[in-house]
Amino acid sequence: MKTELNQHSHSPITAAAVAQWHGQYDVIVVGFGAAGACAAIAAADAGCSVLICDIASGSGGSTALSSAELYLGAGTRVQKACGYNDSVEAMYDYLMVSNGPQADRAKIRAYCEGSADHFNWLVDLGVPFNDSEFKARAIVATTDDGLLYTGSEKAWPYVESIAPAPRGHNLAIKGDHGGPLFMKILTAAALQRGVEVHFETRALRLIEDSGAVVGLVVRSDMQERYLRSNQGVILSAGGFVMNREMLAEYAPDLMRCNLPIGNAGDTGSGILIGQSMGAAVTNMHEGFVSLPFYPPSSLTYGIFINAHGKRFINEDCYHGRVGAHVLRQPSGPVYLVLSIGDYGKYETRSYLGAEIAATGETLAELVAELDLPEGQLQQTIEFYNSHAEQLADPEFHKAGEWLKPLTAPYVALDCTPGRGVNMPYFTLGGLDTRVSGEVLTEAGEIIPGLYAAGRNACGVPRRADGYASGISVGDASFSGRMAGAAAGAREKR
């Protein structure tokens, strides 16, 4: 496999083979997104000398490209101000159930128990949040309100057993601009602590001594440099969404989507560097997948159907859950069927980009245009409408506020993967780590001196099915902070 060749190219060297060291630090961090920045800050606060290396010409990583919503809860200041009594247990239960069989109990427990504290830690760094709620159904807040629902907490099946609470924390800035502000604040906090930064510097391979990581080989200004780490190297260089070879090997289903979310450095290099040291990877087949069909929120009144003319999801759930279920449908088309009145301002307000597949003054006309099995869509809509009139959905339990019968004239949007509809995606697999960020081998043993955070590690978010916006930035900043604190507390070699 080509990834094996890449892995081999990252093979570590021994400290004995280093003729000259070009620098010595307590902690070396690879990558300057949210994970790397928080790792560096935590290590510096532990009294360490810290170096960040990044292949780019400035800080930010994929975090700077995001809205930087943070999925935090368990009683943050903003939640309390908006009247929500969220608890550690409610947050924990939701994340455990939504992550399904892939859930990492220890990481989710630590994240939930530390969530309110992590919010305060970020606030102390200067990250601003307004004590107000954005109540519209949207992918990101269009205002500077500090709190919104960003997952499926209010949707079936989760709402049946777990008390819902909004946990998406939006920075105090209007529009989708939180990422640049978040990284500006974290960058300033790192520099204020004396963290040294080397941009345009590519991490090549680890340096080991008797199985422990003691340094890093980098390339800068067309020269290889050998950097000593006294306490640890932290890999936080992003996922592998931009590496087509790794996607083909580990997560081929993601290649059916068309909009990779990330930056040019999300090539999996940190993962490959870790693997070359004997590190295990986990959950590599999973990723975030979105079908951003709202806004406008009125499209939630429609129904998704597959090639058999059957529904497969409750349309009031999070767009990432919808995207995951779209990818699971049998070969053939996927459509969003709407009453024309609910089509509304789709063409001017939506991120979906789906083309109109058919329209019909009658249901028979719509079915003919879509070339669906005779009678199946009619049966689906008849069943749906008969219960929607009673504000019920016995099949998929869509909430009553989004239930009303579909009426003529109709429109169907083509949401088939590969037909032009926008389906953003990124990877969720990575190096297997402890809560501390310590990297593990296939045998579950710690690799001394090696840590990983952000999307270089497999953290709290494990699948699109139960994803919530903000969980990646939340997890990246939290896992980076944990890794930096752990490396900062390690005894110097």
Describe the structure.
By secondary structure, the protein is an alpha/beta fold. The protein has two domains: 1-288 and 424-493, FAD/NAD(P)-binding domain, CATH 3.50.50; 297-414, Succinate dehydrogenase/fumarate reductase flavoprotein, catalytic domain (Flavocytochrome C3, Chain A, domain 1, Alpha-Beta Complex). The protein is built from 15 helices and 21 strands. The strands form five sheets. Strands 1, 2, 3, 7, 8, 9, 10, 20 and 21 form a nine-stranded mixed beta sheet that branches. A four-stranded antiparallel beta sheet has the order 14-15-17-16. A three-stranded antiparallel beta sheet has the order 4-6-5. Helix 2 (34-45) links the parallel strand 2 and strand 3 (50-53). Helix 1 (2-9) packs across helix 9 and helix 2 (34-45) packs parallel to helix 7 (178-192). The model is unreliable at 1-5 (pLDDT under 50).
Q: Based on the structure given, which CATH architecture of the largest domain is correct?
A: 3-Layer(bba) Sandwich
Per the principal axes of the C-alpha atoms, what is the gross shape? elongated
What is the helix fraction of residues, given as a range? 25-40%
Low-confidence sequence ranges: 1-5
Full CATH superfamily name of the largest domain: FAD/NAD(P)-binding domain
Computed Rg: 24 Å
Say what the CATH topology of the largest domain is: FAD/NAD(P)-binding domain
CATH class of the largest domain: Alpha Beta
Estimated share of beta-strand residues: 15-25%
Largest sheet: 9 strands, mixed
Rounded mean pLDDT is 95
- What is the β-strand count? 21
CA(first)-CA(last) distance: 36 Å
By DSSP (H or I, 4+ residues per run), the number of helices equals 15
Structural class: alpha/beta
Task: Compute the number of structural domains.
Answer: 2
